[in-house]
Model the fold of this input.
Amino acid sequence: MDVPELVRQRASTNGAAGQRWLEALPAVVDELARRWALTLGEPFAGGTAGYVVAATDSAGRECVLKIAMPLDMDEHDTFLRSVRAHEIAAGRGCAELLAHDASVPAMLLERLGPNLAELEMTVSEILEAIAATLTTFWRPITVDDGLRTGDEQAQWLARFIVGTWEELDRPCERAVIDHALALCDRRAAAFDPNSAVLVHGDAHGWNTLDAGNGTYKFVDVEGLCSSREHDLAVAMREYNEPLVRGDTARLVRDRAEFLAERCGVDPQAVWEWGFIERVSTGLANLRDFDNDNGPMFLEVARRCR
Done:
């Protein structure tokens, strides 16, 4: 099968679980195509956490088949949260969920247009579009909706940061890790269930797609019950190249102000969630991928602590 390189790389660097997933993938794809009466097209190359391929159903509707790569139970829970988030959103602000199978796990989704990067937008235009799309996606929810809460996610990120830093033989200075952990504690303590919304959890430009008529929708919804500021963290952590070419600390603060103003939220909380996400994502990239993105995430964090 034509499996995108970053997907194959992630599977290959995760031992037996990743290898089993790769070996089973062709049969899984064939079975889902048969069951859901799909004609398959070309795979999409942008993602890293699963196999995503264009499809057309028996009625001629264009859709997307997404087969997740859950390497442990936590990642399987992430898939279930994503399904629940799609059900809550019901196609408002994100791709419509057409079918799913938790045992695989796989989803069949509405097919959208190109993502913001493919539309050749500037970083400022991308951030503007993400912020605008998040305001259409957010809706009040409660802890009873079954999604991981903001305080639980902050605690999970703290454990991930410490564990992965140790696993990778401490690839950045301890002060960066300590600052991220302190911010995890602050964000966990600040969680307010009375103001919580449905949070995407991975809202960057590659996950923001053209939905026509000047609007956009998200894909790869993670699904959390948290604050609006939390959902701007991923836009904060990405697009590091322009940040390292100038006064990094000031430029990161400027980005927090920019995003907060457009969404009517607290810029300090946006900055704090962004720092946490930048450190956790930098470590994850170092662990899973053979590129220079991980060090750049961590370098920006070092300059901002």
Observations:
- The chain has two domains: 5-110, 123-304.
